[in-house]
Amino acid sequence: MYANYIGFATVGRIQVKPISTSIEDGFALPSIAEFEKAITPKTKAILICNPNNPTGYLYSKEELLVLREICLKHDLFLFVDEVYREFLYGGKSFFSSLNLEGMEQHVVVFDSISKRFSACGARIGALVTRNKEVLASALKFGQARLSPNSLGQIAGESLFDLSDEYYRGIVAEYQKRRDVLIAGLNKIPGVKCPNPGGAFYAVAELPINDSDHFCQWMLEKFSYQNATVMMAPASGFYATTGAGKNQVRIAYVLNADDLQAALEILAEGLKVYAAGSN
């Protein structure tokens, strides 16, 4: 999961119960049975990020219908972080949870301009729901805090005037980067990486035992052609202790040539690390 969810939940005194996904099936939605095991009388909501950060997995309409069934059965909210919904690859289409029939009072969508327009730091977002009670509660919280800065609001409004051509160009570039990265990763001996359907992240499994140590070692002690690679240990994206210790999250926000160079550095780094020079 997106690591900040844990921090937000802690501030709100909310207990997050993780339902594990697996790299073996590309981080697809777990079965209904796995959700049923975690639900108690105190359960209030299911939270997903679609497309997903950190895995890039794109939940299908069929998977969202499974969540609809669970939410209606147990009277739960469905919180959906849709900030990456424009970043879809391979001709895939996006189905918003707001379009789930019968879920008008259950769905709450979170959105932001920071990813869609590469406006990181602007901090202009939205909470979207048809549930008037939720909106009223959110408004009270909003009125108790300062609003986003005026410049960010003005710029954010203008960004929505961009044409569809803007999105087509951005998505085409990210798909090119994704294809270079995923193909390159899966060519490295011992590396496994599913093909993300959206966002601009991938989680790769490496032939290592401790990604925290490996990522730190790459930054502090390894260099190939006077360069190294910075990755995020995937353990920081799991709520289950010990999970993801042989995985890393990679953001393909560099151009294709730089990604190709990074793949070469990673491959060499894995060779040296396996030889025990760490």
Describe the structure concisely:
The chain is an alpha/beta fold and 278 residues long. The protein has helices at 4-11, 32-38, 61-74, 113-116, 132-143, 150-159, 164-187, 211-220, 256-274; strands spanning 45-49, 77-81, 107-112, 125-129, 201-205, 232-233, 247-251. The strands form two sheets. It has a four-stranded mixed β-sheet, with helices on both faces.
Which descriptors would you attach to this protein?
278 residues, alpha/beta, Aspartate Aminotransferase, domain 2, Aspartate Aminotransferase, domain 1, 2 domains, 4-stranded mixed beta sheet, 3-stranded antiparallel beta sheet, 7 strands, 12% strand
The share of residues in extended strands comes to 5-15%
Q: The biggest beta sheet, please?
A: 4 strands, mixed
Classified in CATH, the superfamily of the largest domain is Type I PLP-dependent aspartate aminotransferase-like (Major domain)
Cα radius of gyration in angstroms: 20 Å
**Can you count the beta strands?**
7
CATH topology description of the largest domain: Aspartate Aminotransferase, domain 2
Strand order of the largest sheet: 1-2-3-4
- What ranges have pLDDT less than 50 throughout 5 or more consecutive residues? none
The dominant shape is globular
